[in-house]
Specification:
238 residues, alpha+beta, Thrombin, subunit H, six-stranded antiparallel barrel, 14 strands
C-alpha cells in the first residue's frame, strides 16, 4: 500500500473488498467498489442507468466500507467525469488533512494483507523483463514494459500492435525475469484492464491463483516483493 515514492494505493483484488458510497445534500446516491484509489483521490464507475449526475467541483460525502465494517466517511469533490454508453466514471478528490488521510490508511492496513497490496515500481535502473505470449498464437511474442508489480498482478505498457491479438483474449502467459541474472519464470494471468495511451496500450494483469497451480512461481514474486520492502526499509532508516 505504501509505494516507493511515499504515497499509498490499493489495487487488484483488494478493491473488491471496499464499497464507496456517495452522498450529496443528505441523499444517498449509491455505492460501488472503486476501480482505483490513492491517498488523494478515488475513482468509481457506476452503471449508466444508476449513475448520479454531479457537476464538476461539487462537494460530496464519500463513505468507505471494508468487508462490511463500520463506514468511514470523508468529504470529497468531483474532479472528473467520463461517460460511455454503459457506465459513468467519476474521480473524487479527497478533501482532508494529512492526519485524516493517515487515519483512512490505518484502517485499510488493518483490513488488508500488506504483502499482497504492496506495489513495486521497478524503474529503469532495475527493470523486470516480461514478454506476453498466447498459447494458441505461437508467433505472438510481445515485450511489456513493467510499470508496477505486486503479489497479485502487474501493470505495464505494450505496443498498440499487441492489441490486435490480445483483444481476442482475456488471459495470457507472462514470461518474466524479476531481476537481472535471475531464473526465468512463467505465470498465467488474467487481462483485467486495458487503456489506450497512444502510441501504447497500458495493460493490467492479475495472476491466476488456483491450488496446486504455479505456486512456486507466485512464491518467487512474493519473495521479490518482500526483498524490495526490506531494501526500502533499510534505505529509509539511513
Amino acid at each position: 500500500m505504501v509505494t516507493d515514492n511515499g504515497t499509498h494505493d490499493v489495487h487488484d483484488n483488494a478493491l473488491e473488498r471496499i464499497r464507496c458510497g456517495v452522498c450529496h445534500s443528505g441523499a444517498n446516491l449509491g455505492s460501488t467498489s472503486p476501480v482505483e484509489m490513492t491517498d488523494t483521490s478515488v475513482k468509481v464507475t457506476f452503471p449508466r442507468d444508476e449513475a448520479p449526475q454531479l457537476p464538476l467541483g461539487e462537494e460530496v460525502e464519500l463513505s468507505f466500507t471494508i468487508d462490511g465494517r463500520e463506514p468511514l466517511a470523508r468529504p470529497g469533490r468531483v474532479q472528473s467525469r467520463v461517460d460511455s454508453d454503459s457506465d459513468r466514471t467519476y474521480v473524487f478528490a479527497l478533501l482532508q488533512t494529512e492526519r485524516a488521510r493517515e487515519e483512512i490508511w490505518r484502517v485499510f492496513r488493518s483490513a488488508f494483507n500488506m504483502r499482497d497490496a504492496f506495489r513495486v515500481r521497478p524503474g529503469s535502473t532495475s527493470p523486470i523483463e516480461v514478454t506476453i505470449r498466447i498459447a494458441t498464437e505461437r508467433s505472438f511474442s510481445q515485450p511489456l514494459v513493467v510499470e508496477d508489480i505486486s503479489a497479485t498482478g502487474l501493470a505495464g505498457r505494450a505496443s498498440m500492435d499487441a492489441e490486435e491479438v490480445l483483444s481476442r483474449f482475456d488471459q495470457a502467459r507472462l514470461h518474466m525475469t524479476l531481476e537481472e541474472g535471475g531464473r526465468p519464470i512463467q505465470l498465467d494471468a488474467h487481462i483485467v484492464g486495458r487503456d489506450l495511451v497512444s502510441p501504447s496500450v497500458n495493460y493490467r494483469f492479475a495472476f491466476v491463483r488456483e491450488t496446486g497451480r504455479q505456486e512456486l512461481e507466485l512464491d518467487e514474486v512474493m519473495q521479490y516483493i518482500m526483498e524490495y520492502q526490506r531494501r526500502l526499509a533499510a534505505t529509509s532508516v539511513h
